[in-house]
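Proteins fold. Shown next:

***
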Amino acid sequence: MKIIDTHCDALLKLQLAKRGRVYQVNPLTFTDAPEIETNVERLSEGNVLAQFFAVFIYPNIPDDQKWAHALEQIDLFYTEVLGKNPRMKHIKKWEDLGKLKDGEIGAILALEGADAFGNDLMKLRHLYRLGVLSIGLTWNNANLCADGAGEPRGGGLTLLGKEVVLLNNEHKVLTDVSHLSEKGFWDVMNLANFPFASHSNTSNLCEHPRNLNDEQIKAMFDKGGHIHVVFYPPFINGKDTAEISDLIKHIDHLCSLGGVKRIGLGSDFDGMDFYTNGLHKSSDFPVLINELLKCYSEEEVQGFAYKNFMNLPVLQKN
């Protein structure tokens, strides 16, 4: 069964390796490096139709270096992910997803936190031109656009943040709420044409600032947005390990709130230090699919795996 995975951190791994900070390998090879959970071989084995690649900048990077860090990750996307792997096809417009041929894997750029462009909207427009199709305003910290889920202040969007959401609407770019404060979430819901949670679970089952409560979930579904469950155990059960059955409980709860056609998968591969048993890399997706098929119809599981995403409002022709 085909898969669309809306979050991984492979670009950060490639960058850290290039800079000699991890793995003692310089550089990592995206084609088959065992250190990369979403390498091409594993994406192919997992039958991944499209993979989102997050551009993430650590908060402790000096502000005057963040733009360069972001561009370096995007350059690695072009040179290492796309340039050396003919099977990887850049999805620069949503309609490109429907043009993938057998054996091809779509690669989608996403920005995890507006720190990269600060308050420079010219830089944001460059990111659109480079093919970024999903933007989360924050990671867990605060920035010039909004407060993140880990910011004690819990503020919402700034005027700049609101302007970014409106620009996302104009460019048919998803506005990702997965790391936002709750107030920021509601500000996005008031403004965004294309709200989306790339990797979040339900706080009803796991009380964590990164998860969404029932009111948020219902609002997302009512607006046509989708929520993609994340495989990270602390967001599943608050522990360092979890079972696939624990993850499926979050899908069950989302379905109980009317989301059977608005659920997807956002693994967080290459960004985790703890794992759900049986889900350690992209080639493990069939394990999850087999477990889901014990609980849901094939049509419903196909929806969770990829078809629901293909029905997002941003993908529909005007």
User: Anything to note?
Assistant: The longest strand covers residues 48-56.
